[in-house]
């Protein structure tokens, strides 16, 4: 991980900056970070609540991100834009699925 709780990953030809949030149940990617080639399953829209209030997702999409030398696939919830300096959130669902171990003292994360 780099920064405080951010990780940079590759997605397609882009580098994304994702917040690692162990308190977030779901992983989110903002629509502007998508390449346009993804299929978004709009039947999976859900209502989510966070520190900024309540909103709805657009749907879900299976996204392949490159973390180090590994390509990991995960079903991200797609949201419309956010006025924030990140491309999405890696939540507890992603961390559990990929067997993450987080060392907060050294700002280090290990995925199985």
TrEMBL record:
Pfam families (UniProt xref): RVP
Keyword Hydrolase assigned: yes
GO MF annotation terms: aspartic-type endopeptidase activity
Hydrolase keyword on record: yes
Start and end residues of each Peptidase A2 domain: 16-94
Superkingdom assignment: Eukaryota
SUPFAM superfamilies: Acid proteases
UniProt entry keywords in alphabetical sequence: Hydrolase
CDD domains the UniProt entry points to: retropepsin_like
GO terms for biological process, alphabetical: proteolysis
Protein name as annotated: Peptidase A2 domain-containing protein
Organism field: Zophobas morio
């Amino acid at each position: 991980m780099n920064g405080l709780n951010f990780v940079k990953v590759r997605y397609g030809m882009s580098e994304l900056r994702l917040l690692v949030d162990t308190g977030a149940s779901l992983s989110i990617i903002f629509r502007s970070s998508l390449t346009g080639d993804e299929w978004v399953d709009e039947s999976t829209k859900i209502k989510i609540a966070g520190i900024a209030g309540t909103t709805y997702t657009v749907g879900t999409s299976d996204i392949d991100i490159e973390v180090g030398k590994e390509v990991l696939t995960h079903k991200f919830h797609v949201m419309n834009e956010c006025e924030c300096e990140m491309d999405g959130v890696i939540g507890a669902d992603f961390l559990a699925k990929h067997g993450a171990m987080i060392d907060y003292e050294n700002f280090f994360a290990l995925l199985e």
